[in-house]
Amino acid sequence: MSATSDGYAGDVAARDAWDTLQAHPAAVLVDVRTRAEWSYVGVPSLASIGKETLLVSWDDFCSGTLVPDFAGRLTAVLEEKGVGRDAPIYFICRSGARSRNAAIAATAAGYERCFNVESGFEGALGPDRHRATPGSWKAADLPWIQS
Questions:
Q1: pLDDT tens per residue across span 40-61
Q2: What is the number of domains present in the chain?
Q3: Cα–Cα distance, 43 to 93 (Å, whole number)
Q4: Residue 35 lies in a domain
């Protein structure tokens, strides 16, 4: 699948991303949240399928500004892991906004199959002002760990 008119391969549900990560040896998951989120909220765990979640921040937790050269940092991590430009790459953040931007940036950098996990790791705020709303990684009861 190539880029859509939106500039990336499209949005997918967390469960669909998990299924492809399990079935496709070259598929990878990139978490673009901040170090604080990884530490205090948790990280998707791919250990049960013999993979690791790649951590490449999109923005800075303290300032809220974009971290410079996302595409360059991402490329360095993907090359180090031997990920080809045609591999399915799934991007995840808290609710799907930053990861969508990351999928667009990665597509512009030459990666062919960049997907956004549409509801992210925790999802949008629910009426109770809590996250883990339907469609998110956590709400889909997919594996994750917390330090």
A1: 999 999 999 999 999 999 987 6
A2: 1
A3: 10
A4: yes
CA dihedral of residues 78, 80, 84, 88 (deg, nearest 10) = -40
Assess if residue 62 is contained within a domain: yes
State the Cα–Cα distance between residues 57 and 35, nearest whole angstrom.
7
Instruction: Please give the Cα distance from 49 to 40 (Å, whole number).
Output: 24
Res. 1 pLDDT band, cuts 50 70 90: very low
* 120 occurs within a structural domain: yes
SS3 for 89?
A: strand
Q: Could you tell me the CATH number of the domain that includes residue 93?
A: 3.40.250.10
Helix, strand, coil percentages in the chain from 3-state DSSP, rounded to 5: 30, 15, 55
pLDDT tens-place string over residues 13-26: 999 999 999 999 99
What is the number of H-type helices and E-type strands within the chain?
4, 7
Under 8 Å between Cβ of 107 and 30: no
Q: What range defines the domain where residue 53 resides? A: 10-145
Distance CA 31, CA 144 (A): 12
